[in-house]
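Q: My labmate handed me this sequence with no annotations at all. I'd like to see what the chain might look like in three dimensions before we decide whether it's worth expressing. Could you predict it?
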Amino acid sequence: MGFERLADVVEDLRQDRAVERIEEEHDVHVGRDVPRGGVRMDQFHGFADPLAHCVAVVPGHLEKRFRKLHSDHTAKRKLRGGEPFTHGLAPPFCTRAILKHSINPGGTQSLRRQRKRLETLRAQDIGERFGFQIPTILAFVDSGDSVWSIETFVPGVDGRVLLRDSGPRQKALASAGNLIMAVQADGAEPARADEAWAGEWIDRTADALRAPVKTIMSDTARSAAVASFRRHLAHAFRGRALGAGWYHGDFSPGNLLYAGLTDRDGSPESRVSAILDWDRAGRGGPVGFDVCQLAMTARRVVTGHQLGSIVVDLLRAGQWNEEERAWLSRVESLDGPDGDWTRDASPLRAMVLLVWARQILANIEKYDQYARNRLWSAANVEWVLRYILRNPH
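A: Here is what I predict for the chain of 393 residues:
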């Protein structure tokens, strides 16, 4: 069966046909009955026929967990009852594609954006020119209120798994930082932040900070904090240099895959082999935006802390920790005429606040349940807003 026939699988799934019948007619295995708490790897591995296709039906909010478990599983070098294989590389009979489905308005928009971004990036040969893979859309069904999309499953070691090991961590992060900086620099002459840019990046982002409906802060306190946030970022980014090329918009370890081979010294190779989830990508982002997001999300992987706690710690300290400074110093082109946010406290606070707020915006737009989750809002939104209110810049 060729991948082009997977469109028929999507259509049959959309029409709620029996999974067993779909598997029999299309000669495809469909992973199903995904538990709320995670994904069992035996649902996706162990098929005797190395040419068999496996479409993992994974809800959007569990896809990254699935990829992380996939890397955990392959890193053990041996499947239960199977033969050893190279560290981090998928065996020939494992998942070949991922099916994403959403009926949530934000989720369907995310899948539509992902399709458009991947088509544009592929047309511009971004992955080929810079030496990394991006997923390919194999089939796409848009019925208006729901979207089904099948993407190729790109093999590699999940960045979250690799970063657990302090040995390759700095090299892996610096490698990713230099790669995305090269992508962002790819284009015509860079522009400068103007009022139109501020309307999208600052004003609309600030409005998202008012979105949570189950909150602890009073409306008056929240409004004051958001107003302070808006003023601070408008001043900090006015006239600031913008990247000419693509920014990713969700440049976190869970969206990075590494080659999974080993360097000469026996340590895992630090080369980024693939970048996933481009639905928040665009042009005209602040220089270094993705690298700052990588530093913040990598700290979360290493420490397990919530994003709100990480942001407040960075605002208080006004500097990165020793390990972060070490790998950031190896990323080229971050020290520009607008101030070095990797070393200077004021540019650092501004960039961290922008990355934080854009992440809050992305979460709320993609999954509207975040806005109704009091615990999430308190830990990741109000914790930061309270700090801003007490420490106006």
